[in-house]
Amino acid sequence: MSTRDKDGFHSPDQIVLSRRRMLTATALGSVVAAAGISGPAVAQTSSAATSGGYRPNGKVALVTGSSRGIGAAIAKRLARDGFKITVNCVVNKDLAAGVMHEIKEAGGDAIWVQADVSDPKAVQRMFDANERAFGGIDVVISNAGIMRLAPMAKMSDADFNRMMDVNLKGSFHVLREGARRVRDGGRMISMSSSITQLRSPTYGPYAVSKAAQELYASILAKELEGRMISVNAVAPGVVNTPLFTDGKSAQQIAGFAARTPHKRLGEPADIADVMSMLCGPDGGWINGQTIFANGGMI
Length: 298
Fold this sequence. Notes:
The protein is of the alpha/beta class.
């Protein structure tokens, strides 16, 4: 049994090394009503999410793309876990401010920063703002991303380039800055997607941009050897957010939900729960891995 330091992360006598690919399927919440999936929904909530109070842990987390959807759920969950939070957006300023206010009104501490992750200078300024507010950084979640879908023969250069600027380059900018600034014993997580395994038509370039996250995590984990920083990728399946549901009919959504053993879509809170585990005191031994949080779809 490894020991932990007073702040909750594993102490330096623990060797953070893993070579096994971990497949997990997490499912909580209820099916999207528009999908028309019938049957009872079994909802499970963790004690951290229902404790009714924030427990400051002295740690700081930055979550990119956290004005809505999965990113917002991650920011709020980590705040409940005791982290001070830097919320990030590009255009949704009101939503980012709303996430910050929700955290603060519930007893947590947060700021929000506008920054386009495709701009390395903007990423540096975002980390600078976090340090001015909180004095340092312990957890970086590279969540910001966009999706453009089309058969390869029909995808425009503009759509391809913008997706690579945000997903591929943007994540690199965030992880690079995190590697320079995250305190020893911290966590870094990049957002992949289960589409890297499903490999559905029209998803080609998007899948490539997400497969890169798994390679980033695996290699960066080794490059940070000796600092007790665990780096992983999380690969959600179909999740009830506008990124997935926009442009899809109720029948199409129902078809995706039916592909999981739980017969529902994932919810942002499902992914936030996985992030909470990886960022918490029990998550340090998972390192250099891709965690597939897709309800058993693959």
